[in-house]
TrEMBL record:
Mg(2+) binds at residue 51. It comes from Swingsia samuiensis. [4Fe-4S] cluster binds at residues 31, 46, 49. This is 7-carboxy-7-deazaguanine synthase. Its cofactor is S-adenosyl-L-methionine; [4Fe-4S] cluster; Mg(2+). One of its GO terms (molecular function) is 4 iron, 4 sulfur cluster binding. Its EC number is 4.3.99.3. Pathway: Purine metabolism; 7-cyano-7-deazaguanine biosynthesis. One of its GO terms (biological process) is tRNA queuosine(34) biosynthetic process. Keywords: 4Fe-4S, Iron, Iron-sulfur, Lyase, Magnesium, Metal-binding, Queuosine biosynthesis, S-adenosyl-L-methionine. Catalyzes the complex heterocyclic radical-mediated conversion of 6-carboxy-5,6,7,8-tetrahydropterin (CPH4) to 7-carboxy-7-deazaguanine (CDG), a step common to the biosynthetic pathways of all 7-deazapurine-containing compounds.
Length: 213
């Protein structure tokens, strides 16, 4: 199987319980809940996406014919910046990474010693071997991955309330204020909800605050 990659880059994880951790991000092309085209946004299942995941033209993007070639590129990206050999950590995101992440790619990155994280909308079951599963549920879609490391709900959403998820099998429950024109109000609403419901914690998109990818 070949893999379509929008971009890959080294940064610090900006969200959730792994915030601040050095990571190589591998952003897959394409999503099952939005085409990525602005003219389709209003009719898509997921309408607030903050990400460009169309094509393969980003930094380090491209089509990779095999899992080994993609894993080598991720390792090279890591080693260009990171001096220490241990603690290798790859975050597969997108787009929707579980449309493309398969056993071959998991084995190939594990062979380089990477720990593996995914950011998923939860509509596809994660393959075995993923070490950190972050599920972020979306409207007009069926949540299938109901177990994982963290559940990160973008807040507020008309169709989805936190109470729909907090009995599921996750270690951490996050509210992440929806970025966009109402980010300030959305943050205030998320704070108010967390204050009243301490099971939920606030996840801020810290990379945006400090201007890193
Ligand atoms: C771009 S998505 C890619 C991974 C996967 N498709 C998903 O939705 O989880 C990465 C993370 O950004 C979050 N996100 C997307 N748009 C956002 C926005 N406008 N404000 C806050 N978080 C957002 C998603 O909910 C998800 O947790
Ligand atoms: N720094 C940083 N952290 C992130 N956490 C989740 C992201 C994503 O787009 O999946 C993301 C991202 O794009 N950048
Ligand atoms: S599911 Fe994820 S990648 Fe797809 S449109 Fe929504 S936030 Fe963006
Ligand atoms: Mg992002």
């Amino acid at each position: 199987m070949s893999y379509a990659i929008k971009e890959m880059f080294i940064t610090l994880q900006g969200e959730g319980a792994q915030t601040g951790r050095t990571s190589v991000f591998c952003r897959f092309t394409g999503c099952n809940l939005w085409s990525g085209r602005e003219q389709d946004r209003d009719t898509a299942a997921c309408r607030f996406c903050d990400t460009d995941f169309i094509g393969t033209n980003g930094e380090g993007g491209g089509r990779f014919k095999t899992a080994e070639l993609l894993a080598e590129a991720l390792e090279a990206c890591w080693s260009r910046t990171v001096k220490n050999t241990g603690q290798r950590y790859v975050v597969f995101t997108g787009g929707e990474p579980l449309l493309q992440l398969d056993d071959a790619l998991i084995q190939a990155v594990k062979a380089f010693g990477f720990e593996i994280a995914v950011e998923t909308n939860g509509t596809i079951i994660a393959p075995h071997g993923v070490d950190w599963i972050c599920v972020s549920p979306k409207p007009d879609s069926k949540l299938i991955q109901t177990q994982g490391s963290e559940l990160k709900l973008v807040y507020p959403q008309k169709e989805l309330s936190p109470e729909m998820f907090d009995t599921l099998d996750f270690k951490h429950f996050w509210l992440q204020p929806m970025d966009g024109p109402n980010r300030f109000e959305n943050t205030q609403k998320a704070v108010a909800f967390c204050l009243a419901n301490p099971r939920w914690r606030l996840s801020l998109q810290t990379h945006k605050m400090i201007g890193i990818p």
